[in-house]
């Protein structure tokens, strides 16, 4: 199994009362709640934690993209990944991912990702997302065109990476007379492409198509939902006429490893519950605005995530598999059991979440690296 240290870079110094009063920390929380001096310290702390992940033995360090939110301070994962490209030497760097329909032009994404791939000597993992519904409110982009813009941007990027230029690309949303990428990616034919998702049927059908066979990542969800969607991906591959490889499946989940089960829950409780009940929270119309997804996928995602819309305690989260928490032995056995059921080849662990401070984050990372990581890597 491949172990990935995934970081959201939240605004950990958030006034939680202000977040609760506003009803969400997405889009509408006034930016007077952001202190740039605290932000400076957080950015550098978080980059240190990701770099430390390589030292601890993680295979991949991963960043992502969100806008106008305390949930994650990475409006440009390109900036974060660029910093990591120079400060790491072995670990792969995953961008999970660039929100293609929200970017002004896909050729900028193609150039920036290729540049990071070249700087890092071929260590980039590219991730493409549509961006969650809240971010369509951020940019005033019509979510009805989300799928079309995503697919067309993807096609232009992959062609720019793989076809000799210059050539012409004439799509509905993007028209370019001269596509002639400088620099070209270091990896051939291009960096691996991962697709994070909330479980949209359209995304699963598209990512698993024989022309792509991309790695599908199920994000923050109850474990039964993760199991359902990973099985759906495998079944879709089978329907296309080929067998899904374990490397095509991944799961992203917050984790806390303590000296004992009791100390783990005690140390993580307030920080995880802040993450789950303040940072994650948003109105359903903001998460899934009209036109963002099909009616079928809308109903399925709402049903799958229904348990997450109310207040969630750490005990409930552990029971649901939304959070894996305990001693190194408890956490290892939990993941070994989940792996036997789902056979995912990529595990993305969030060792920092919500308001978790630096000392507990480091201790969590170290206990995971010593007591859990070696045994999970051996799963094959």
Describe this protein's structure.
With 380 residues, this protein is of the alpha/beta class. The chain has helices at 16-22, 36-56, 77-87, 106-119, 134-139, 146-162, 201-207, 223-240, 261-279, 284-287, 295-304, 314-320, 328-342, 358-371, 373-377; strands at residues 2-6, 60-63, 92-99, 124-129, 167-170, 175-179, 193-197, 215-218, 249-258, 324-327, 346-350. The strands form two sheets. The protein has an eight-stranded parallel beta barrel, surrounded by seven helices. Helix 7 links the parallel strand 7 and strand 8. Helix 2 packs parallel to helix 14 (358-371), helix 3 (77-87) packs parallel to helix 4 (106-119) and helix 4 packs across helix 6 (146-162). The protein is globular, with a radius of gyration of 20 Å. The chain starts with a strand and ends with a helix. The model has no long low-confidence stretch (mean pLDDT 95).
* Major sheet summary line: 8 strands, parallel, barrel
CATH level 3 topology: TIM Barrel
Beta percentage is: 15-25%
Q: At the fourth CATH level, what is the homologous superfamily?
A: Luciferase-like domain
End-to-end separation in angstroms reads 6 Å
CATH architecture: Alpha-Beta Barrel
Number of domains: 1
The class by helix and strand makeup works out as alpha/beta
Q: Roughly how much helix do the residues carry, as a percent range?
A: 40-55%
Helix-strand sequence: EHHEHEHEHHEEEHEHEHHHHEHEHH
Question: What's the oligomerization state?
Answer: single chain
Reading off the top of the CATH hierarchy, the class is best stated as: Alpha Beta
Gyration radius over CA: 20 Å
Shape: globular
